[in-house]
Design a protein that fits this description.
0% strand; globular; mainly alpha; 390 residues
């Protein structure tokens, strides 16, 4: 990494850290003035950045298992992304003090009137929520530290053993993540509603994490493609492959989202319909329309065209749209549980993702600077950059 690039990253890191601390400091006012709004906004901001880290973690394991030329120039972005997970565990602590504001199962008045909440109390309780959150994040942090350590060890040796270790962990790691991620989605998001449950919900959230990580990879690749050692090796073919992956997961996300809606609509059960009624009625229908347009229709039709996927500016713009609309998607999952009568925008809805994002970006840049932008001595590198520069 050149000295000039390191100086630029140092400045960006310092700026992100100052903005993050200042905005989160300002949000402390919300605890005293709009306490319930504070915790919902904080949960929304925390979930978005956590999902990005988890998406980076998942995509890294996918690449270790399957290979693919797209993964080598983006791996260090993904590794720096999931290395922020310890910070996300620390930032989860404020949520533990706002469970009564967030979740019906934590409020005595709801427990007294809702039998289903009392039946689930053995699982949905404050101690269980806290311990499971620590367990989920602790397991993912440990796995991420192993992958990062082996990746750096591979930089220092031509022996392929570290890469084999990473591949051996990634197979069961993806399976374990699917299991723990399902329970985490129930705890953190699904239990915001009293009667809501869906076996497809966790799949939708996890696919959204992967899609966001791929969009993030495209954005970072464009920012750093002119830097050494990426400049001589990154070509339009890498963008083409990443564009195909974006299209794949746009389709997958839409398929499972529509499948969940169709099953619930066909069943017509009140305890299932409530969740959708809170999100498709009143002004929330505008948010839903924006998600349909920018999370499916627009990217689907544009990413069908090969020239767009090989055009750096066009694909980067599409990735930026998908990254931004996933912020809206996270907002749509969380906030209707609080504002059931329609969209109500608070300054804390902007402050939370900006403040948490500032800290996330500062630590991300710290890890990005600590290793070469391109992995060294990985056995797959000999096949990764054999492209025709046409």
């Amino acid at each position: 990494m050149s000295t000039s690039l390191r100086r630029q990253l140092n400045r960006a890191q310092a700026t992100a850290l100052v903005i993050g601390l200042a905005v989160l400091g300002l949000m402390v006012l919300g605890v005293f003035t709009q306490r319930r709004q504070f915790f919902f906004s904080y949960l929304f901001g925390w979930l978005f950045w956590l999902q990005l880290s988890l998406g980076c973690f998942l995509v890294t394991m996918i690449h270790h298992l399957t290979g693919g030329r797209w993964g080598y120039p983006t791996r260090r972005f993904l590794e720096a992304g999931f290395m922020v997970l310890p910070l996300m565990l620390l930032l989860a602590v404020p949520l533990f003090f706002g469970l009564r504001e967030l979740y019906p199962w934590a409020r005595p008045q709801d427990l007294a009137t809702e039998k289903i909440l009392r039946d689930l109390q053995a699982w949905q309780n404050t101690l269980g929520y806290v311990l499971r959150s620590i367990l989920f994040l602790g397991v993912w942090i440990w796995m991420g530290l192993c992958l990062r350590r082996w990746s750096l060890q591979q930089d220092a040796t031509e022996d392929a053993r570290p890469t084999r270790y990473a591949r051996a962990l990634s197979g069961p790691g993806i399976v374990l993540y699917g299991l723990l991620g399902t329970f985490a989605c129930v705890d953190w998001i699904m239990s915001l509603e009293k009667h809501w449950y869906s076996t497809m919900f966790a799949v939708i959230v996890i696919i959204g994490q992967i899609l966001t990580a791929y969009a993030f990879s495209v954005l970072l690749l464009t920012l750093f493609r002119s830097q050494q050692p990426l400049a001589p090796v990154v070509t339009k073919t890498h963008y083409h492959h990443l564009g195909n992956l974006l299209l794949t997961f746009v389709l997958f996300w839409t398929y499972v989202s529509f499948g969940q809606f169709l099953i619930i609509y066909s069943g017509d059960l009140p305890h299932e319909l409530d969740w959708y009624l809170h999100r498709i009625a009143t002004s929330w229908k505008v948010v839903l329309a924006a998600l349909a347009l920018f999370h499916f229709f627009l990217p689907f039709f544009l990413l069908l065209f090969r020239p767009l996927k090989r055009h750096v500016a066009a694909l980067t713009s599409m990735a930026a749209i998908l990254f931004t609309v996933h912020v809206v998607d996270t907002y749509w999952l969380v906030m209707p549980a609080f504002h059931q009568g329609g969209v109500v925008i608070s300054w804390q809805d902007f402050a939370a993702p900006i403040g948490i994002g500032g800290l996330w970006l500062a630590l991300f840049l710290a890890f990005l600077k600590s290793a070469p932008l391109l992995p060294q001595h990985d056995p797959g590198l000999q096949f990764a950059f054999r492209y025709e520069h046409s």
